[in-house]
């Protein structure tokens, strides 16, 4: 019978291969972030990357203007650099700008408005699966499930609408709700309409024929 002699170098090679086989190739799970809006009655728009901010400083047109929020969530104006604005309301940014500009201007009065709304990802509503145009939709005040379905063009012919799931993070815990899209969209059953919140994810499965 032939005997195989394993040298230290060969043994080390097999040990490394075995260790590599035990290592996980999976990525860490995405952070679960609850929407800052938990009630449709207290919704306030939050600024996000890509938004265009119109910052008006009363009696100081030279420091007023339109500024786009960078991908890192910050803006730079003619007087100040790297002001973090993402996840804040326009009013919050206005008060913060007044505090910063008070170093250069006496008693500044600032107003902030938003154009070209994009908003942070956590404030968007995502539709995946058997929608005609699955996409991320910018949340609007008082948005309902029917409004959302109109935005994505309704259901495909292969959709199992009444087995759709609405994923929502509540107090850091992911919850799943069944929604009756088929009844709502195809049968016009308004009782199947529900309120949508920023950060919701709507998953529409394919029907099994």
TrEMBL record:
Pfam families on file: Poly_export, SLBB
InterPro entries tied to this protein: PEP-CTERM_polysacc_export, Poly_export, Poly_export_N, Soluble_ligand-bd
Signal peptide start and end residues: 1-20
Residues annotated as domain Soluble ligand binding: 125-171
Keyword annotations of the record: Signal
KW Lipid metabolism (keyword) present: no
Top-rank lineage group of the source organism: Bacteria
Domain (Polysaccharide export protein N-terminal) ranges: 41-114
NCBIfam families in alphabetical order: pepcterm_export (TIGR03027)
UniProt name for this protein: XrtA/PEP-CTERM system exopolysaccharide export protein
Species in which this protein is naturally found: Pseudobowmanella zhangzhouensis
């Amino acid at each position: 019978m032939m005997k195989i002699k394993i040298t230290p170098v060969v043994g080390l090679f097999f040990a490394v291969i075995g260790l590599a086989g035990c290592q996980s190739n999976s990525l860490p799970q995405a952070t679960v972030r609850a929407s800052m809006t938990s009630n449709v009655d207290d919704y306030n728009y939050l600024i996000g990357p890509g938004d265009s901010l119109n910052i008006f400083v009363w009696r100081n047109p030279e420091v007023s203007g339109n500024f786009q929020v960078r991908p890192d969530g910050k803006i730079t104006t003619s007087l100040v650099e790297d002001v973090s604005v993402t996840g804040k309301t326009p009013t919050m940014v206005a008060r913060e700008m007044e505090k910063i500009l008070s170093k250069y201007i006496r008693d500044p009065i600032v107003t902030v408005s938003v154009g070209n709304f994009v908003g942070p990802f956590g404030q968007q509503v995502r539709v995946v699966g058997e929608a005609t145009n699955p996409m991320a939709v910018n949340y609007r005040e008082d948005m309902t499930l029917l409004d959302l379905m109109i935005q994505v063009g309704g259901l495909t012919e292969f959709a199992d609408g009444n087995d759709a799931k609405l994923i929502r993070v509540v107090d850091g815990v992911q919850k799943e709700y069944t929604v009756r899209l088929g009844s709502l969209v195809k049968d016009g059953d308004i009782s199947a309409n529900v309120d949508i919140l920023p950060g919701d994810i709507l998953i529409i499965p394919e029907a099994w024929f």
